[in-house]
Amino acid sequence: MLMSEKITLIIAVWILTALLITGDTNLEIFFILIFIGVLIVRELTDVFTTFNFKDRMNIFIYMFILVFIVIVGQKIINILSI
Amino acid sequence: MIIGISFLLVNTALYIKLGFASILIGLFMIFMITERSIPKNISDAQIEGNLDTIKSITKNLNLTGNALFLPKSDIRTEERIFIPLNENNKETPDIDDDFVFSTGTDGKSLGIAVPPSGLKLLKEIEKQMDFKNIALDEVEESLQTFVGMDLFRSVALKKVEDGWRLELEKPVFCTNDQALCNQYPCPTCSAVLTAVTRASKQKVWITDTMHNGKKVVFHLTVGE
Predict the structure, then answer these.
(1) φ, ψ at B43 (rounded to 5°)
(2) Domain regions of chain A by residue span
(3) Which terminal CB of chain A, N or C, has fewer other CB atoms within 10 Å?
(4) What is the pTM for the complete model shown?
(5) Rg of chain B over CA atoms, in angstroms?
(6) DSSP state of B170
(7) Of A15, A22, A51, the CB nearest to B24
(8) Using CB atoms, which residue from B13, B33, B127 is nearest to A5?
(9) Angle between helices B13-32 and A27-44 (to 10 degrees)
(10) ipTM tops 0.85
């Protein structure tokens, strides 16, 4: 099994685990858990992956950062409106 | 991904989550697993042809010495392997890029100088990882790039009493020919040895090679 396949498999398992952990609760925690998992996998596999693979993984991380900013923004707006 | 989109149409929290999970897994599969591969027996066959040529040259010239990896220098733009007549011949002639056969007429060692089989492979890997500006003590971490590229299962370089011990687990291609490993290692092992030479910026001798199950162990002397 190629390294990229192993990493993708780990992330897929983590997404399913996050789905099981969060259950019926809100979507934000689910996304943040996935984001944390992707960041950890990116950091731990750094020496084993090629630049090309890192770049592709970074695209997902940037997407998750955008989602994270939206989630945090929403929370701040909610708190301030109270 | 299609399953994920259909889950999103059902308007409950659990189904929305299942939908996003399926879409994310689908996106990861599409964008992250994109490496092309060719059958292993085809790539092995390409490698073997090159090794057979060197094997017959060393056999015909009766060269029995182990490989000496020479670093870049003022007269060499890239690394070279020098295979001397025997192990006692440790003196090397002035080897430049065009030098191949050392006939011993200059009073120095008889032998041949050829580019390492893994030089081209290392050039490709160097696009991902730099080996020039790393100290020999720290090169082991950079060598993990080879593991990341699935060329080996593990790579370990340790300092031992009489030199260095390079342990390579499950190379993607291995001849299991100890004599050949001593004189002209296969491209994957050779690329690692050339990287070690590049980091050390000194001569690297293969003093001994061992095939230990799935591992290939090189005993190296650096800088003598």
Answers:
(1) -70, -35
(2) 3-81
(3) C
(4) 0.71
(5) 23
(6) S
(7) A15
(8) B33
(9) 20
(10) no
